Amino acid sequence: MPDPTPSANPRTLRTPADLIAAGLAPESALGALAAVGARYAVAVPPALAVLIEAPGDPLARQFVPDPAELETAPGERADPIGDDALSPIPGIVHRYPDRVLLKPTLLCPVYCRFCFRREHVGPHGGLLAEADLAAALAWIAARPAIREVILTGGDPLFLSARRLGRILRALDAMAHLETLRIHTRVPIATPGRVAAPLLGALATAKPLWLVVHANHARELAAPQRQALALLARAGVPLLGQSVLLRGVNDTAPALEALFRAMLACRVKPYYLHHLDPAPGTARFHVPVAEGRALLAALRGRLGGHGLPTYVVDIPGGFGKVPVGPDFFLPPAGVRDREGRVHGLGGPLAAAPGAG
Ligand code: SF4
After folding, report:
1. DSSP secondary structure, 79-123, as one string
2. Is the CB of 115 under 6 A from ligand 1?
3. Gap from CA of 83 to ligand 1 centroid (Å)
4. For a Cys-Cys bond, which of 69, 77, 240, 342 suits 267, CB 3.0-4.6 Å?
5. In the annotation, is 270 catalytic?
């Protein structure tokens, strides 16, 4: 049983020996975990380690490496959503005409065992080189069709506040950009970073949306709630993104608790992602049909603002699409949340006799 006191895990756990000493893995796993750690980055920061109640629980499953990561299942691929093919220069991914991803770092405060960028993120990737960052900003500045820049990575809030602030100021100065977005795990993984310097860096002139990644209600404990409250009080709109994961949040009560916890932190659940087929992640896979049924079960249990869109990022880089659930029954019927079928009436109604 892991020691639940925060002082027992004062540092980020990065090695098999750290994980064993913290009670998160058995000694017998030392060799196997070393093999996983040699291929994929490992980090469990204290703010998350303290929330793990037992090996294999929904938090341990997300963050503690597992020997199964070295087994690649059929259909899994190193670059599941085609980032590499859509990257014209280092640090940029351009998938949609009006927006672009900027990846200023490949470092994260925690390394999620199901990450779709797991072949890229980690200390070996590090920061985008200064010259590459300048080139990436110049690339954006030269494309007036781009309206939004999404900072991702890695975790952009894991940059120093000074470096992040410098990037955001540069983007703020580009007249053709309308909005900015940052995808982050920092308020969950290292909530202590959400302090005056970071809040100062986030004080952009353009609207800035922060998309916070959390997958289980227990990730939103007191320090995380405090960090999100600071962001909300600073006027940063907060959205939530989650991944549907076997053994983590694959039940209606677990998802309901997660989305309620987000709402309580002023975070609007935005996307529930179907798992991208990254190598060694098969143990997390939940079929789409099951995900649709879970979201259908939540309809009526949560207000509309508490329900995210369930999306699949089409393998190969073809973008995200919503995959339901769908309550419309062509040509003019609907199914209610209990499964009862109704006609819509009015001009949409089927002609008599129509199927
Ligand atoms: S924080 Fe995000 S980018 Fe980093 S390992 Fe987790 S899922 Fe991947």
Report:
1. STT-TGGG-SSTTEEEEETTEEEE--B---SS--TT-TTTTT-ST
2. yes
3. 15
4. 240
5. no
